Amino acid sequence: MVADGASIARSTSSRRYKTDIAALPLDRATAAVMALQPVTYRGTSPTDPDRAFPGFIAEDVAQVEPLLATYDQAGAPDYVTYDRLPVFLVPVVQDHARRLAALEARLA
């Protein structure tokens, strides 16, 4: 436990640390990927006053797909879980690859 009441945990990948495992539905992944709005922004930290960054806004991401944001103790979106974003991209890319292969087969 950290002083402010937050806890520190590690992200794990092994099946032994998971329950209720289910496939991410393609329609949910596609809807999220298509609705996300990449932005550029300048942070408010004095350490990078003249630097722009690419990214997303946590509040916007949470509206699109709550699983891609984390929340503060009050329940407000706090940051984007960028490390989990590729999980939503994989089924979309796989679907596009299947569709492309089908179109190429039809043309051949």
Q: Brief description of this entry?
A:
The chain has helices at 26-35, 58-64, 85-107; strands at residues 39-42, 52-55, 69-71, 77-80.
What does this entry look like structurally?
The protein has 108 residues and is an alpha+beta fold. The chain is 37% helix and 14% strand. The protein is built from three helices and four strands; from the N terminus they run αββαββα. The protein has helices spanning 26-35, 58-64, 85-107, and strands at residues 39-42, 52-55, 69-71, 77-80. Strands 1-2 form a two-stranded antiparallel sheet. A two-stranded antiparallel ribbon has the order 3-4. Strand 3 and strand 4 (77-80) form a beta hairpin. Helix 1 (26-35) packs across helix 3 (85-107). 8% of the residues are buried.
Task: Give structural attributes.
alpha+beta; 3 helices; two-stranded antiparallel ribbon; 4 strands; 108 residues; extended
Helix and strand layout, with pairings?
Elements: H1 26-35, E1 39-42, E2 52-55, H2 58-64, E3 69-71, E4 77-80, H3 85-107
Helix pairs in contact: 1-3
Q: Would you tell me the overall average pLDDT?
A: 92
What is the rounded Rg?
A: 18 Å
Number of DSSP E strands: 4
Helix coverage percent of residues? 25-40%
Silhouette: extended
* SSE sequence, one letter per element: HEEHEEH
State the low-pLDDT regions, or none. none
Helix-and-strand structural type: alpha+beta
Q: In order across it, which strands form the biggest sheet?
A: 1-2
Largest sheet, in brief, is:
2 strands, antiparallel
Number of helical stretches of at least 4 residues: 3
**Strand percentage, roughly?**
5-15%
End-to-end Cα distance, whole Å, is 61 Å
